[in-house]
């Protein structure tokens, strides 16, 4: 039996024989995690999406493939949004990034194969976690109390990504790396600003200098 058939046709969690709560105790293929024959892959959110597909349209392939295509489209949009945050100013780099992600052949299996939905859903929550953490860092720099809300959302989204595919466990690590890089870049900017402030005539304009990306904060 092919992976797609086994994940759906042979999965009791999808067919409903075990109930919604049962999928929290089973692996990706519907085998109890405590069973010696379990694959060990724990992806209940992805399995839940298969179950919803089954409840809506049974075993008709079109619905499963349509959802995968829509998920890939959403992931592409999130990649574009992330690129706007981390790439230098300019639309060309962002557009190229989005285009490469959308059409790169490495994604063919994830989109065309139904079981590839684990990669798609994991990717979406992964990207959402990164975007939430970027918001956390920005609000933290501004002293905005909502930084803690953004941090909590980041952790929840990272957890959701892990429940779609185990490899998403690296999401919080990537967030930490982003924070380190952002902090280093911020330190360089402060040094540059400090050096600039010693130039003749700088005090005359210092009161009207805004922090890039800030909502009208003056230094």
TrEMBL record:
GO terms for cellular component: endoplasmic reticulum membrane. Pfam families: PMT_2. GO terms for biological process: protein O-linked glycosylation via mannose. It comes from the Eukaryota. GO terms for molecular function: mannosyltransferase activity. Residues 52-183 form the Glycosyltransferase RgtA/B/C/D-like domain. InterPro entries: RgtA/B/C-like, TMTC_O-mannosyltransferase. PANTHER family: PROTEIN O-MANNOSYL-TRANSFERASE TMTC2. This is PMT_2 domain-containing protein. It comes from Anopheles maculatus. The lineage of its organism: Eukaryota, Metazoa, Ecdysozoa, Arthropoda, Hexapoda.
């Amino acid at each position: 039996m092919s992976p797609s058939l086994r994940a759906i046709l042979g999965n009791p969690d999808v067919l409903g024989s075990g109930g919604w709560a049962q999928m929290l105790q089973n692996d990706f293929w519907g085998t109890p995690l405590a069973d010696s024959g379990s694959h060990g892959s724990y992806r209940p959110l992805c399995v839940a999406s298969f179950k919803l597909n089954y409840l809506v349209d049974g075993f008709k392939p079109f619905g499963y493939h349509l959802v995968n295509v829509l998920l890939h489209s959403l992931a592409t949009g999130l990649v574009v949004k992330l690129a706007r945050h981390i790439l230098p100013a300019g639309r060309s780099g962002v557009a190229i990034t989005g285009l490469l992600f959308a059409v790169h052949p490495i994604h063919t299996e994830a989109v065309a194969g139904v079981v590839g939905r684990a990669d798609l859903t994991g990717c979406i929550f992964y990207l959402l976690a990164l975007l939430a953490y970027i918001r956390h860092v920005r609000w933290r720099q501004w002293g905005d109390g909502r930084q803690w809300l953004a941090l909590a959302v980041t952790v929840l989204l990272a957890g959701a990504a892990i429940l779609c595919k185990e490899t998403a466990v690296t999401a919080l690590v990537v967030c930490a790396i982003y924070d380190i890089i952002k902090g280093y870049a911020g330190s360089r900017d402060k040094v540059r600003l400090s050096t600039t402030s010693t130039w003749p005539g700088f005090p005359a304009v210092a009161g009207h200098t805004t922090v890039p990306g800030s909502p009208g904060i003056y230094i």
